[in-house]
Amino acid sequence: MPLGTLDRRPPPFFHQGPSALTRLAIFSALALFLMAADTRFAITRPLRAALALVLMPLERAVQVPVQLLAAGSEYGRGLQTTQADLTRARQALAAQAERVAKVEQLSTENARLRALIELRPALPVRSQAAEVLYEASDPFSRKLFIDRGASNGVVPGSPVISEAGVLGQVTRVYPLTSEVTLLVDKEAAIPVLNTRSQQRSAAFGADGNLMELRFMAGNADVKVGDVLQTSGVDGVYPPGLAVARVVKVDPRADSSFARIALAPTAVADGVRHVLVLEPLAVQLPARPEPEPDVDRRAPAKPRGVKK
Fold first, then answer.
1. Is the residue at 1 inside a domain?
2. Model-level pTM?
3. Among 218, 160, 152, residue whose Cα is nearest residue 190
């Protein structure tokens, strides 16, 4: 190969251009010129606008994951807040429902107590208020217990009434409590007076929550809807207290007595406060003792006469 054809220039690795200081000076001057020109003549403003327009889709695409992450975090926080608010609302609603139930219960109890207070002055006997503790667990009897006993002056046979009428009678007395047999008990009986016909009879407990009039003739003057009250002839119940209402009259052909069903005016369900009356026999005056027999047939012996 002829020597004249050889490339005697140094390779690119060894080729050196302007020095680093020179390039720094040139680029610094160019930057200052562009800043001054842009500030003075705004020559780069269209370039920046075109560049921003071109890069806008890329910028939006890059911001999508960030926006999704922020929206997801906001949704999670909102969901937690909503669930917490819902839990608090449910708790408040439950507390409000409980409060409303208590208010209704207190209103009912207040109405019953007011009725008892209004009934007490009209009673011709002494009375005392009592609270129902619980109902007897015997399925074959209808009895309940009250919080008044012998220490409070309660005696066996004391009538027990509610604001609706006669509820029952005290059958057993303990030091601090008493047992009350309801009128619907099979062993209970009470003398009654028909307010319409003024006919006296006796009402007895029957099956379920009903009572019945026994030993009434088939042609007796008893109609559905008749109101029965205490007659006051037994020396226990004061007269004029509501007892029951006639709901069915069945004149049986196979018997000389009619079957008459009664619905008691006062029921034990839901009753919390009652009045315990003193039996009428306790307040009746004692019977006078009979005078000793004097033999009035023998003449009186005159004074001063000796045999």
1. no
2. 0.56
3. 160
